[in-house]
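Progress against Task 2.4 (sequence-to-structure conversion) is shown through the following example record, which the project officer requested during the mid-term review.
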Amino acid sequence: MKPLQRLVDSTVFTTLVIAVILANAVVLGLQTYSGIEREYGDTLELLNGAFLAFFVVELTVRIAAYGRRPWDFFRSGWNVFDFTVIAVAFVPGIRESSTLLRLARLARVVRVVRLLPDLRVLLTAVVRSLPPLGSMGLLVVLILFVYGMFGWLLFGEELPEQWGNIGEAMLTCFTMLTLENFPIYMERGMEIHPWSWIYFVSFVMIAAFIVINVLIGIVLNSMEEARELERRRPLAKGEVAPVAERIQILRVALDELEHELHVRDVK
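Structure tokens generated for the chain above:
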């Protein structure tokens, strides 16, 4: 099945699939215009059927490229996603519901992420950053709660619209976290307590600058991990990666090994 594998991995095949996905997206967009839908609705439905037939053939060829081990196709999460997106169009009840049918067609457009390495890296980075972002979210809520309580104690009576209860106070702190209208909030607070600038400045220093910078660090670290996973994909699939990429992978592995040995020596 090497000819099929070469076909699936070829630039021409990938470009054709991307072109069909984009054409499918255009057709879905045209169906949102009532005038076009009334006049060319049958043609657009015919095109949607043709796109689905193409995707079924494409999926069949990609599965067949695995030869005598077609189940290996499902070892990749992206392949499982592709198969699910295509198969859902044949689930009973989907075609009877126009909303579900359009959602199923829209999901096929998302498949373009799998075919574009940069988009795939970005999506992988977002997924990998979710666990640390969860912890980061708890930290932000804690900061908003603490500063919200302080704000309620300082300004709750004089400015009930912004600081009247803990919910309003936390919402005001969240707004200040984006630095929107921050000078206005600080000016009103200083009219009540001249020294309250300490409260506002410390909040910006802790919440806005530190939290946002840590957030950026988490995203950048996840991006680097995602790029490394993308570089190792050919090796995981048993393919031969370019020499430059193989050297880079070896360098990263050596750096990790050196770091582990250094940690053991310190202990």
